[in-house]
Amino acid sequence: VKQEDLKGIKILITAGPTREYFDPVRFISNRSSGKMGYKIAEAALERGAEVALISGPVSISPPEKLHLFHKVETAEEMKNKVNELFQWADVIIKAAAVSDYRPKHKSEHKIKKSDEEIVIELVKNPDILKELGEKKGEKILVGFAAETDLPEGNAREKLIKKNLDMIVLNDVTKQGAGFEVDTNIVKILYKSGKIEEFPLLSKKEVAHLILDRIKAILKERA
Ligand code: C5P
After folding, report:
1. What is the per-residue pLDDT across 147-201, written as a single tens digit (0 to 9) for each?
2. Residue-by-residue DSSP string for 6-74
3. Would you state the pLDDT for residue 2?
4. Does 3 fall in a domain?
5. Cβ of 54 less than 6 Å from ligand 1
6. Which residues are part of a known binding site?
7. pLDDT in the model for residue 13
8. Any domain includes 112
9. The domain spanning residue 126 has which CATH number?
10. In this structure, is residue 2 part of a structural domain?
């Protein structure tokens, strides 16, 4: 029985996409539905954790009994909210698909159609997770990686670069894995070098798996 086995643990979860505007009504975003992060929040609450959820724009409803639920649109807004809650959290799970780039300029007015072609210049967004990794201390940091090529190598590199305890990798080219769907096929890579591979599972099952691994890390440290 897993009930209440995460009692007293404070978990901060980010979920969903971000929107990066180039005029008041237009933006660059991605296909993230928020389902994976919301399922982790739901599973953590069932297990007695205190859960804060910071979400990009999604069409699903948050679970009840959250410690805090905050909606954001841009990576900048997400960064500010995550930083506000950083001290509070024991565990941070960054399931959000944060846009790596944003338009350099945001027009105050809706861009008018003309016969000219237009170019949208993109600049880099801050890497929220990487910044957390630099000040992580005793906190447990979990990242996600959605890859279309060289999945394991890329994920291992991120794990190290961002100073994470573990990274959950989904190959978004596989049927039943990644964005929008209710299932996922994941590999979990650990700081120790260990890799675990899992079959097709529901996102709720994946959520519990991730929480089991976090619990194991907490136990090891205690
Ligand atoms: O490097 P990449 O963006 O693929 O890394 C994915 C992980 O980093 C995810 O956990 C995502 O939430 C996080 N991330 C972030 N800030 C960004 C980009 C990604 O926190 N600007």
Report:
1. 877 778 888 999 999 999 999 998 888 888 888 889 999 999 999 899 999 999 9
2. TTT-EEEEEESB--EEEETTEEE-----SHHHHHHHHHHHHTT-EEEEEE-S-SSPPPSS-SEEEE--S
3. 64
4. no
5. no
6. 100, 110, 126-129, 144, 158, 162
7. 98
8. yes
9. 3.40.50.10300
10. no
